Amino acid sequence: ERKRFYQNVSISQGEGGFEINLDHRKLKTPQGKLFIVPSEVLAIAVATEWDSQKDTIKFYTMHLTTLCNTALDNPTQRNKMQLIRAAVKFLETDTVCYRVEEPAALAELQRDEWDPVVAWAEKRYNVAIGSSTSILGPNIPASTKETFVSHLASYNVWALQGIEYVITQLKSLILSMGLIDRHITVEKAVLLSRLEEEYQIQRWGSVEWAHDYDLCELRARTAAGTLFVHLCSESSTVKHKLLQD
Question: Where is coiled-coil annotated (predicted)?
Fold first, then answer.
């Protein structure tokens, strides 16, 4: 945290996008690059994060700003295909594909809650996914991975940074795509990603305040990542997905 050093936040259109101004100073990334985003709505959302800070700037609450910094600085120096491959690799360890056999109540809960999402994804993308109780996980067909590679290629690099961020929060490509495709809500996606933990809490109880804090934080990060994807998607992509819906 640091003390708030500005009074007013505004946006302005620059060469190649929209800039954020803190009083009369242009916002910069951690690597010193000009903070410039591709869409006005994203700029407004980022400006709102800065404007909502009180006496001190709590950077850990500014998820959209962080995602923009990552997209601009690209600290891992990955190109578009590397981002796509990293996202698809999560299929091999996808949360909703790993099932338990015992206790029976949890196994039943996983079937009831996760099977419909897997079935939706298989129909939506015309792929085979399945699930497994083996520690090795399910055997995902190569054709399924390539279908997801092709689908993710329809997003731009900025949106892909957001998709990977959401996948990292949920530990699931399937839940992330269900969320980004507007099939499930943020609350539902987070709940499904924490199914076993929620089961244990129902059985044994939770640590006072800690569970609620973790849940709110995860929802906030997941919601921010999803919003980032939608705000960064090319208008044609957004229109195409809306028409599909």
Answer: none
CA distance linking residue 63 with residue 55, whole number of Å: 19
**Domains of the chain from N-terminus onward:** 2-73 (3.30.2180.10), 80-233 (1.10.3580.10)
Q: Are strands 17-22 and 25-26 parallel, antiparallel or unpaired?
A: antiparallel
Model pTM score: 0.90
Task: Provide the pLDDT for residue 137.
Answer: 78
AA letter at 223: A
Is 35:26 a contact under the CB 8 Å cutoff? yes
CA distance 32 to 21: 15
Q: How far apart are CA 27 and CA 33, in angstroms?
A: 9
Contact 233, 163 (CB under 8 A): no
Q: Among all chains, which residue has been given the structure tokens 């044609």?
A: 236
Residue 159's closest CA among 37, 242, 77?
A: 37
Torsion of CA 244, 162, 28, 82, to 10 degrees: -110
Dist CA 194 CA 87 (whole Å): 20
Please report, rounded to a whole number, the percentage of residues in the chain having pLDDT higher than 90.
80
